[in-house]
Each structure stands twice: as C-alpha cells, then as structure tokens.
Amino acid sequence: MSPSGRERLRKAAPYLVATAWMVLAWAFLVRGVEHPGVAYRPWAFRNHAYSDLLAMTGDRYLNGGRPLPYVEDRIEYPVLLGAALWAPSFLPGGQVVHFTASVLGLWLCLLGAIAVLRRLPGASPWWLAGTPAIAYFGALNWDLLPIALLLAAVLAAERDRPGAAGALAALGVSAKLWPVALLPAAIGELSGRRRFGALARAGGAFLAITLALNLPVALCAPGNWAWFWRFNGSRSAENSAWEVLRMKDPAVLNLLAGMFLLAAAFAAAAAAHRAAPASRARAVRLGTALVLVVWVATNKVWSPQYALYAFAAGALVAGPRWLFLSLVVVSVVDYHLAFEVRAGRNLFWFFDGWYYAEELLRTAVYAAFVAWIAVELAATGRGGEARREVPA
C-alpha cells in the first residue's frame, strides 16, 4: 500500500471501527422485532438483547398509531428525545424500519462525534470509536445524540464561537440533561478572561434555544412536559452504589447526588477560571469531563448505557490506556449482570451479592477516573499539562 493509501486508511480507521460496532449492535438487537408488544421485554432480557428503541416504539407505534409526543403521549425524556422517538414512526415498513432508521441516525451521531474529536487537538477519538461499549449500548437508547451535541459544543467553545456553543449545549440538554456538564467550566473560563460579552452571547443562545424547544410544549401540555422532572425526581436508587448502601428515600438521594454534582461543577468552574493561558482549553475539557463523570457515578439511577458518557469524557481529555481498558471491562460486565441476570432471570437471590459487588467495582473505577481528572485539572493552574497516555 502506498504512503498516501496508508494515511487515508489511518484517517478512516476510527469511522470504520465505530461503524462495525454499530452494525453489530443493529444485527444483534433487530431480532427483537420478531417478539413484538408485551412479549418483547421478557424475550430481550432472556437473550440479553434489550433496546429502548424497540421497547418504547413498540409501546407506542406498533399498531400504526403515532400519538403526538407530550400532547398525547407522556414521555420520560426531554423534548428533543421525544421527537427522535416519534419521527421514525412516519416511515412505512413497521418496527424493523423504525428501528433501523433510529440506528442509522445514531450511527450518524457517532460519526459526527468522532469527526468533532478529530478536530480537537489532544483529544482521543479512539476512546469513543474503539470501545465495544458502542456495540452494547450504541442502540440501547438515544444517548449518542446528546453526546454528539455536547462534543460539538466543546469544539465551538474552543473555536471562540460562544453563540454556537450555547446553542449546541441547549440542543444537547433538550435531548438529555448530561450536556449541561459543559457549562460550569465554560462559564469559569470566560469569566476568568473577563469576556462577559461572549458569556452573554453564549447564555442568550442557550436560553433562546431552550425556550424555543420547550416553551411551546410546556404551554400545550404542562403536565406531560413536566413528567420528565416528576418521574426522575421520584425515582429511588436503581442499580447504583446508593442501592448497595440501602438508601431508598428519593428526597435524600436527590440531595446527596445534587451535592456531589454541585461540588464537581464548582471545582470545574474554579479550575477553568484560574487556568494558565496555555491550558485554558484543556481546563474546560477536563472540567466538563469532571462534572460528567461525577454526575454519572453518583447519580441515584444507573443505566448501563451511561458508560458511553464516560467514554466520551475520556475521549475529550485523552485518558490513559489503563483507564480505558478498565472502563471497557466494567461496562461489559455491567451489561450482562444488569440485563441478562438481574432483570431477565429469576435468580436475583443468587446473584444479588455479585451484582452489588459489581456496583462497588464500577464506582471504584469511576472514582479512579475522577481522581485522574482532578490531578490533570490541578496541573492546568500551574501553566503546564500533566503527562497523559493516549490509547493507540
């Protein structure tokens, strides 16, 4: 192969690997269309092949109906994800076409996320493209959409486009809340440079897009629009370390998880505010990753696909190889225990201890990730960057 051919292959490799993971996810999960309706979930858990894309569309659109999101249909996600759930229902061909269209959309989000990472100097696209978590979780839920929007917002911020960064962050938050993780560090960095005009443009764009997407729905169907907040606020500990601690009161859990989140947000904002000039961009990335990983790790509810946010965070900050491999192992084990064993089989009494042990192991790995980010973040205030190993 010529040098130019090798270079083209090198550039294409992350996209090709990510595509292979998504094809594998589609092929493994699409079998579920043969078990429609109420039979789907038991089959999916028994065969460790569950996807919200099939379960939630099957609940709503299996018989040809397409209730208008929030107005006629209560959905436990923000409005942009409700639209992503609803839009494929207009395609002819039934559930297999709806599912395939959704996976194609998520695949495009994944390719877009990788393209963004390749435009961020020092990021590691392979953290996202190379993880088998894509095969497990890429088509489990719609998380690749907010992940792509979050990464795009980071890129816009680094390229000094505060309005675009605010708008993209708002789109991400209107899909799932996680992309708000960018805001503390971005605000801290802009205020540290006294760029209050840029901060106002970013805030104005964020507010305008958020209102444009949410206000019409909230006015038309306030109860159904607010269901996302009521539903999540009332949930108890599920599959998280809080469950191991036997903590069940939603109000207490909301307070504790909120305290961890606020502490991470404050640390991210403060570090980005005082970062040395040469390290400001990295401080924003590290602060974003810090909020994201702390939030995911200490949230009262854990779903296995949340691992995708950890891999996106690792890609942003080019985490070390040992951490990448640890997260890969934990995410794969977590999938099988959560879906194959605990949710799908009537052997919880036997696997209870195993699952609790895995919850603690998962939390320990995420704590190690937080510690690594904290060390790197501290280095940005000293005018340098700590040495980091980028996975090959």
Textual characterization of the structure:
This protein has 392 residues and is mainly alpha-helical. It has one domain (3-380). Helix content is 70%, strand content 0%. The protein has helices at residues 3-29, 40-46, 52-61, 79-86, 95-118, 126-129, 133-137, 144-158, 162-173, 182-192, 196-220, 222-225, 227-234, 241-244, 250-274, 280-298, 307-317, 321-343, 348-380. Helix 9 packs parallel to helix 11 (196-220) and helix 10 packs antiparallel against helix 16 (280-298). The radius of gyration is 21 Å and the shape is globular.
Q: Work out the radius of gyration.
A: 21 Å
Mean pLDDT: 91
Most strands sheet: none
Structural class: mainly alpha
Tertiary shape: globular
- Helix fraction by DSSP (H/I, runs of at least 4): over 70%
Series of secondary-structure elements, N-terminal to C-terminal: HHHHHHHHHHHHHHHHHHH
Question: Hey, roughly how much beta strand do the residues contain?
Answer: under 5%
Q: How many helical stretches? A: 19
How many strands? 0
Low-confidence stretches are: 385-392
The termini sit apart by 21 Å
Domains (count): 1
